[in-house]
Amino acid sequence: MPDLRPRFDELLRRLGEISDVEHAEAILTWDQETGMPPLGAPARAEQLGALARIAHELGTAPELGSLLEELRELEQSSDRESFEASVIRVTRHDYEKKLRIPSELRAEMTRAASVGYAAWLQARDAVDYEIFRPHLERRLALTSEYVACFAPFDDPYDVLLDDHEPGMSTADVAAIFERLKAELVPLVAGLGEPVDDSCLHGYFSPARQREFSLEVLSRWGMDDQAWRLDDTVHPFATNGSITDIRLTTQFHDDQLVGILSCLHEFGHGIYERQVDARYERTPLAEGVSSSFHESQSRLWENIVGRSLSTWRFFYPRLQECFPERLAEVPLEEFHRALNRVAPGLRRVDADEVTYPLHIILRFELERDMLAGAVTPSDLPEAFDAKLRDYLGVEPRNVLDGVLQDVHWSDSSFGYFPSYALGNVISVQLWERATSELGNLEEEFERGEFGPLREWLREHVHRWGRTFKPPELLERAVGGPLDAEPYVAYLRAKVEALEAA
Amino acid sequence: MPDLRPRFDELLRRLGEISDVEHAEAILTWDQETGMPPLGAPARAEQLGALARIAHELGTAPELGSLLEELRELEQSSDRESFEASVIRVTRHDYEKKLRIPSELRAEMTRAASVGYAAWLQARDAVDYEIFRPHLERRLALTSEYVACFAPFDDPYDVLLDDHEPGMSTADVAAIFERLKAELVPLVAGLGEPVDDSCLHGYFSPARQREFSLEVLSRWGMDDQAWRLDDTVHPFATNGSITDIRLTTQFHDDQLVGILSCLHEFGHGIYERQVDARYERTPLAEGVSSSFHESQSRLWENIVGRSLSTWRFFYPRLQECFPERLAEVPLEEFHRALNRVAPGLRRVDADEVTYPLHIILRFELERDMLAGAVTPSDLPEAFDAKLRDYLGVEPRNVLDGVLQDVHWSDSSFGYFPSYALGNVISVQLWERATSELGNLEEEFERGEFGPLREWLREHVHRWGRTFKPPELLERAVGGPLDAEPYVAYLRAKVEALEAA
């Protein structure tokens, strides 16, 4: 076998450059959403477009294809888990996928997303879906064109899903969602009077919320050498490298929801932070799928962040931060309020139990739109009907209904399922972690979150994209994706609340 | 003549993409110096290197060369000042220059600058020049390699100077500097007791300083739609587009120098902000030279920002911000303190009279380093010796001496002269503006800074890089670069202070 090391180094050089451009894009997007002066927007759109086009061109260069051919031998002679084999395998997957997409279609999708986002904002301002409808039609047409690039396929939605959940089929997702729906629709319909969560509302100084959030996150593993936390309108996490993690949040002055969004974004951040440092500037240096990413945010926000044990440790400090509001509120009351379950209109405000139903209805509508069974003209009524059927709630207008999410304006179809799949995975991981590590709740009460974090590093984070999601899950929890632990978790949550 | 319009549009498309990548680089650099977590540094160096290489490759593409050939006819048949002719002319100048530089060298210089910046910060923290020395050696070696790309030349420093001061030779600069040195060394040596500036020292809340600075800058023309102001170690200004201007400063809690640095950076910002909007995403959309840029920062910081008239308007508000320190200090005392002349160690704190000597010594040391007459090992002692000779001051340590400037870590050699040349130009522009507009000081007293700002827009800013610097100066002031007005201005300043 010839010495392929120099060719592998050349592959790493090319991959490093692609990663550099993609991370530049991430930082420019972060800047756009955190601090960019408003008039910077038009030029920023051009800059992001240029970087996306350049990354796509670098990622489909014929020289990259030849390198991958040359390196087949190195891949086959290396251990499957080895750095070399994994880099070559994942690069080949990405390369073959990107090659299918004409760069003009990619550019047109980017432009349509940008225009669609502006139209969505306008439509919301005017409370008028008709302003947005033609843009949705355009995006749907482009999505169909995109899907067609990957023919043949069993289900057109498979193509979209593969961008976020490689290795999963639409049928897999539908099966999980049928199970959740069968369980949750009656559970939600049978809920008693929601608990009183008035202690979470009223004036809370944003500066104090920020201070408290940073204390929690420091305890969990954030530090100021490799992380930062900024304000934004729609919270998100991104990163400039494995050692440059950017969380964003929005602290409202009349509720504590900004703190929970910090805990959520921490989950995304710690995943990227704990990827094996050796993967830097390769396609391995990233969370393996959107659902795995969401499993981390959900785990830290919900399972850890809403647990009584966690608040046994942090609540006294929270009371110190907001004595005028919380000094008289017992821990148990605060904890119940934090775990309140009640059907509502808005996905982003939904509790753990009703949340999956918001996702399922969107997944179903996306499939129907792709199949032509629901057109953009039908969408508002179809959306409201599902809100009624699954959650028993009735939107007052399109802001509560079809216009509530940004995703159909500027993001790809196919992302929504990841949120609910993330919930499912989060409980599977949690059960496995506790079965291996013993009573983690006792650790939380003492302010010890390191054992859980290290377990996640070892079994999930460090691997980046080395394994496909189903394989990573199998290795981490010893089985396939399974909705049952999540269903049992939600049942227990509701029972505990009803009993309290 | 064939219709060359489509070819010109193709040129604009290519130039737009280059501009996009260069502005992405600017924002990533801004991020690096304002908020990036420290551990983000190594990956950031790679990202900046990749963008520099990509911009360089786009800027030297053979297709760009062919386009420029095809467009010769359009250039020659268009008015010299027209958008079309100017874009083609300036692009050709840049293209021919960039062709000399291998893209790998360009990328390596950018990486070394980013890494060098981190090492400079470390060296300062440790008060240890040796941490920085190897990086300076590396940068010097790369600089020599860069210079060699432009052989033959009269003086190697000409090559570096041309990056900042197109159309000027090292001999021109040396002549101006000899004149300044001959004037200023004896002037400084003969200074009487410096005025008492104790009113500028003591505790000043950084938050209040920031608030006050923003009030001044708003009055001058800053707004929150197209500008922002952030904290940094070494203040600078940059921009993401004509409508996205980033100023940075450092507010110390024991002096007011951060306010003056805001006024300085405003001059840079307003220059970029007032470039003709039509030039966006072309090589014309930038200040024409470093010295013209510095002339704007100096003009706003010194001529406007230290004038008695300006403070007649702003001082009452400053007293309101800091009543405990300034309520009892008369305007005239404050103004004299602000204009104090006394030799000191640090360039960035230097007054207007001693400032050029700090520049001249750096210019001389850069030439010596380039010639090998001073090595990075010799530099600390050589630096201190010149501080003694020209200014009669003695550094306590390397923070006061060789490590005080960021430039030898992250910027190109050849920049320092621009500061002093900027001073020279600023006085030439000021004299011309007042001769055309009448008594601007009276306007300042009333808080009116618009007439000066608009004069600068009309005669300097809007043109961007349309004209070469000597031509722009000729058009704006009716003559060539001339040190005499500046010398007279400094003499008058010293006389006024001695008389007070």
CATH class of the largest domain in chain A: Mainly Alpha
* First-to-last CA distance of chain A: 69 Å
Order of helices and strands of chain A: HHHHHHHHHHEEEHHHHHHHHHHHHH
State the total count of DSSP E strands of chain A: 3
Number of helices of chain A: 23
Proportion of strand residues of chain A: under 5%
Q: Structural class of the secondary structure composition of chain A?
A: mainly alpha
Helix content of chain A: 55-70%
Judging from the principal axes of the Cα atoms, what is the shape of chain A? globular
The major sheet of chain A is characterized as: 3 strands, mixed
Report on the structure:
The structure is a homodimer of 500-residue chains. With 500 residues, chain A is mainly alpha-helical. Chain A folds into two domains: 5-155, no CATH class; 156-500, Neurolysin, domain 3. Chain A has 23 helices and three strands. A three-stranded mixed beta sheet of chain A has the order 1-3-2. In chain A, helix 11 (257-273) packs across helix 12. Chain A starts with a helix and ends with a helix. The A-B interface holds A 16-17, 20-21, 23-24, 27-28, 31, 35-40, 42-44, 46-47, 49-51, 53-54, 224-228, 230, 240-245, 280-281 and B 16-17, 20-21, 23-24, 27-28, 31, 35-40, 42-44, 46-47, 49-51, 53-54, 224-228, 230, 240-245, 280-281.
